[in-house]
Amino acid sequence: MNLAAESLAFGYPRHPVGRDVSLAVRSGEVLALLGPNGGGKTTLLKTLLGLIPPQGGAVTLDGRPLAALTIPERARLIGYVPQAHGGTFAFTAFEVVLMGRTAHGGLFARPTARDRDIARAMLDRLGIAHLAERPTTMISGGERQLVLVARALAQEPRFVVLDEPTASLDFGNQGKVMRQVRRLAADGLGILFTTHDPNQALGHADRVALLRGGAVIAAGPASRILTSEQLAALYGAPVETVVEAGGRTAFLPG
Amino acid sequence: MQTRALGGSAIAFAVLVAGIAVAFAVGRYPVTLPELATALWSRATGTPSGLPPSVEAVVFSIRGPRVVAALACGAALAIAGAAFQGLFRNPLVSPDILGASSGAALGAVLGIFLSFGIFGIQAAAFAGGLLAVAAVYAVGSTIRSGDPILTLVLTGVVVGALLGAGVGLIKVLADPYNQLPAMTFWLLGSLSAANARDLVPLIAPVILGAAVLVALRWRMNALSLPEEEARALGLPTGPLRLVIVAAATLVTAASVAAAGIIGWVGLVVPHLARFLVGPDFGRLIPASAMLGGGYLLLIDTLARTIGPVEVPLGILTAVIGTPFFIWLLATARGGWS
């Protein structure tokens, strides 16, 4: 399947944020969206999720406009992983993941045995089955992020969209979450995530799109697009490249 | 978690049964549970009960209607509070956050000022509560900047203050010897006027609204998440919010119209229920209903027996609710609040 933005203008009626954006995520592939603060990453993400309507152009799924789908239909195709937050109420991890089944039941339906099985299976898939009965207000940020990934998977979607999945995580948890994200693509899901860290995009994404001022200034395979020149242009600041003896590359703010 | 929740629901049910037993057993004419069961059985089957007529009068004409009214009001305020706390993603919200109580208060004092009968006052209070929330919702929905939830809550606070000014104005204009005491008494809440004839206008809207809230309780979990997450999970948040506000307002306005303003129940009881069964609305809503009914029944029993004259309910719920809530704030470590 193919989730695509076609000549997309996005933003709000009196506050256009970006225009003429074209990009696509295919099943089994990870696309990273990089860009400076205020570049429109989050607004673009919300538009791709169908949470705010396009101001021009279209978001399409296999060529069909996303706007033609109902809210539950959309939720069964695209899962959303927001930045980890504690939440107002102390739902257990299992209860949070079970909410991912919302779009699969009717308005008055109580969760079925199958819903519960799927929620448990998704906790298991992410290696956090032991957290099932823990309140999500009392687990670490990394664990909470994995719970939210499990919730998105419980939607049984074809695409998962993650908003800065590692923004508030420590170093170890960043790796843990990104390895899981990579595994989902191996299982055939299309993945789109935003990040502030070019190294993360280089290490975990197949392709990247660089978003600045609401426009895509470069897009393509991660290893080709991510150069110190491109990144310097993207962030408006010098970027150094460090190449290790084994050939691995890393970027440092200059 | 499952066993804890089951145990919690059992405790909520026990509080409900205890509330009913105590309400009948305490008072000038005590009725025991076996007597109550005999009276109800004989009424249901149409056979003579063999009980003294005074017991039957207490069960069916005097205390029975008051017990039913207390159960209905307590359950209504508690589930409306639980639903609103989820909808507004804030555990400190009570069912009158959108102006239901202040609108009902203005309606009731207007009714008293214009010398309406009891039924007219209740109708005016009911209409006032519904109109106030409708106005708040209409104004809040036309303001399209910022978070819709926050806009709605702030509109409710502002409109509530305006309605409060209206209540103040009418109290100033009212006859200080007849009307003002009636207004003051009404505003503090009481079930002393409950009788069998008044039960239908209370029970019908409460059952209707409660049925909607109970039916939608599984969706309230996802609805308590931030707006965009809820929609990404597949919930049509706008229409769902309108339906829940309408149902919660219906039950709140009906109970305020019948019993006056009884604060704290809708705020405190959902916390107690969450403590017993956890935050999952699938269990929280039924537990809140049972606990709210039992709680208000115990308070009302206290109100009519504690002194030579009846103590207004709003005073008792505040005296009990305030220290309880401070204790809640002090002991809750983000676990279930």
Task: Characterise the protein shown here.
The complex is a heterodimer of chains A (254) and B (337). Chain A has 254 residues and is of the alpha/beta class. Chain A is 32% helix and 29% strand. A six-stranded mixed β-sheet of chain A has the order 6-7-8-3-9-10, sandwiched between helices. In chain A, α6 (171-186) links the parallel β7 and β8 (190-195). Chain A is globular and about 55 Å long. The mean pLDDT of chain A is 93. Chain B has 337 residues and is mainly alpha-helical. Chain B has one domain (2-331): ABC transporter involved in vitamin B12 uptake, BtuC (Orthogonal Bundle). Chain B is built from 14 helices and no strands. Chain B is globular, with a radius of gyration of 20 Å. Chain A binds chain B through residues 46, 49, 51, 71-72, 74-76, 78-80, 82, 85-92, 94-95, 98-100, 102-103, 105, 107-111, 133, 135, 137-138, 151, 155, and chain B through 1, 86, 89-91, 215-216, 218-219, 221-222, 224-226, 228-229, 231-236, 240, 274, 278-280, 282, 334-337.
Topology:
The complex is a heterodimer of chains A (254) and B (337).
Chain A: E1 2-12, E2 15-26, E3 30-34, H1 41-48, E4 56-61, E5 64-65, H2 71-75, E6 78-81, H3 93-98, H4 113-125, H5 141-154, E7 159-162, H6 171-186, E8 190-195, H7 198-204, E9 207-212, E10 215-221, H8 222-225, H9 228-235, E11 239-243, E12 249-253
Parallel strand pairs in A: 3-8, 3-9, 6-7, 7-8
Antiparallel strand pairs in A: 1-2, 1-4, 4-5, 9-10, 11-12
Helix pairs in contact in A: 4-5, 5-6
Chain B: H1 2-25, H2 33-45, H3 53-87, H4 100-113, H5 118-142, H6 148-173, H7 179-188, H8 199-215, H9 217-223, H10 227-232, H11 237-259, H12 265-277, H13 281-305, H14 313-331
